[in-house]
Amino acid sequence: MLETTIAAIRPADDAAMAAARELHGRLTKPAGSLGALEELSVRLAGLAGACPPPLPEPAAVAIFAGDHGVHAQRVSPWPQEVTAQMIGNFLAGGAVVNAFARQAGASVTVVDVGVATPLPTEPAVLDPAVLDPAAPRLVVASVRRGTRDLTVTAALTRDEALAAVQTGIRIADELIDAGAGILLTGDMGIGNTTPAAVLIAAFTGADPLDTTGRGTGVDDPTYAHKVAVVRAALARHTLDPADPLGVLAAVGGLEHAALAGLILGAAARRTPVLLDGVIAVSAALAAAAFAPDAVCAMVAGHRSAEPGATVALRHLGLDPLIDLGLRLGEGTGALLALPVVTGAVRVLHEVATFDSAGVAEK
Ligand SMILES: O=C(O)c1ccc[n+]([C@@H]2O[C@H](COP(=O)([O-])O)[C@@H](O)[C@H]2O)c1
Ligand SMILES: Cc1cc2nc[nH]c2cc1C
């Protein structure tokens, strides 16, 4: 499945992009007055191969959850059980992501790809429809109960990493088959900013000081220790950016691998994928290493407060739509950016031309 997905990813359609640029020039607004929204709409036309591209509706958030062996190194102040407990909160509709998803009319799919502790017993709604915006859905696709400690050994085998990537592709296909017009990345995993920092350093060559942040909020001594853990991981493993599956296996998390799969799956279906924070953009680097043209499908929702996010976005050549100092994850930053993406596309569908509206041009 991974090979066929990668093979299906194509470059942007130049004719559709040229048509979108030409249309922008005829709409009743000064040229360039919609700033970054104009280039975003052009990119989405290129992705869809159509001008205007389809409105990005309905929206579907996929939250991939996993635990991390490196948690044993005390890189996060939070107990590992919080990952499973927050899944309960997502399914009950009580997390920030649920509040923002209700506001945006987006569905929420929670995917257990490798949570270490038992999940809450019953979801609030049994077996909801795939894109039901009112009922979060749980998919259990656990590869193993958390990764191994990447400072000691490879976090995953190649087969385990591949299984998680394939799960991400399968979820993308399922959501798009159900009618989703845009996918939004979400993640939950206590400790997952540490593998994100290692992945970003591995794919960009940046120094761990520039890729490591405070995650959920660590104090100064713990932050210094976390940077040392990231450095130790880079020294421990031979990481070849041309072998993204090998990198994900050595130092990734199951949610990072699954997110890479989701992004590849969306790109193969020419469907935009709105990236959330540092975990998403670390996975996006892996996706781009698998298939450089996958970047055409990526929209950077926001700039996470984690420094590694800025390093990764620069490497991908993406400008984030909003910059609010968020560092929550779950898909929250992507959901806040969703109306901006919809607005960018809506302009191409609904705004009158100078000619049709009888407005004089300069
Ligand atoms: O999205 C982000 O950029 C982001 C930044 C900091 C923390 N998080 C979330 O916080 C958790 C990981 O933080 P930590 O400190 O345990 O590594 C995990 O559940 C992430 O979703 C997310
Ligand atoms: C409470 C809590 C909620 C989260 N959501 C995403 N990561 C999280 C980490 C914690 C600790």
UniProtKB/TrEMBL annotation:
GO terms for molecular function: nicotinate-nucleotide-dimethylbenzimidazole phosphoribosyltransferase activity. The keyword Glycosyltransferase applies. It comes from the Bacteria. SUPFAM superfamilies: Nicotinate mononucleotide:5,6-dimethylbenzimidazole phosphoribosyltransferase (CobT). The keyword Glycosyltransferase applies. It is an enzyme of class 2 (transferase). Keywords: Cobalamin biosynthesis, Glycosyltransferase, Transferase. CDD domains: DMB-PRT_CobT. Catalyzes the synthesis of alpha-ribazole-5'-phosphate from nicotinate mononucleotide (NAMN) and 5,6-dimethylbenzimidazole (DMB). Belongs to the CobT family. HAMAP family: CobT (MF_00230). This is Nicotinate-nucleotide--dimethylbenzimidazole phosphoribosyltransferase.
